[in-house]
Structure prediction request, 240 residues.
Amino acid sequence: MNRSTDGTETEGSADSNRLKKSNLRLVKDEAQTFQSDQSPNSSLHSAKPDQRLQNRIDELERQVEILQQQLEVERRHAQIDPLTSIPNRRAFAARLKSEVARSERNGSPLSLAVWDIDHFKKINDNYGHPFGDDVIRCVAQVIQSHLRESDFTARYGGEEFVALLPDCDAEGARILAEKICHVIRQSGCCLDALDFNLSASCGIATLYGADRDETLFKRADDALYRAKLSGRNRVVAEND
Prediction:
């Protein structure tokens, strides 16, 4: 399946999905036509139904099931970043909406953390893009390994990652974000490169009563921008 570097569907994969859906409709229509021909009110109905027609109906039903399974697999793949195998920006957007709605219903806290790998362009320039891909994969693994099962992380695009933290207030989000940044610094993401110092900046925000998904993300992203301006390699909360 063709996807862009941030894991979103390209035009080719969208065309593939449309073709499969069209074929699925055709197969269903054909199956319904054969079933109608076999109905008691049909002029073709007889005491002993044509076995060939029944076999064809069975085959069409199998094709419908196969196409439905293929569409479901492609739908899931369209929400996975191919480089890191974690959810992509599209999956994050859908999950953000549902978590905001859940938080509003339950009156529970919801925090959002946004990380950006520091000086990533220099990493690519100095060590090459394959090495840069290794860094992205490793940072994704570090973030994911420190989250709870109820949390949700995604590669937002390029060297930027996000994490939704339900039932987590601002202080809890800060503690987690600082721990992850510390692990990234200490481990160097397990990459053996001379004079290579890896770090990440992070911005965090917590849902307020009148918030929506767009405003929550903007405040976290603004906090990340301030972390970058103030020297990188740090966590900044929206109220800092």
Q: What stands out?
A: Strands lie at 110-117, 152-157, 160-166, 200-206, 235-237. The first strand starts at residue 110 and ends at 117. The mean pLDDT is 82. The CA atoms of residues 17 and 189 lie 37 Å apart.
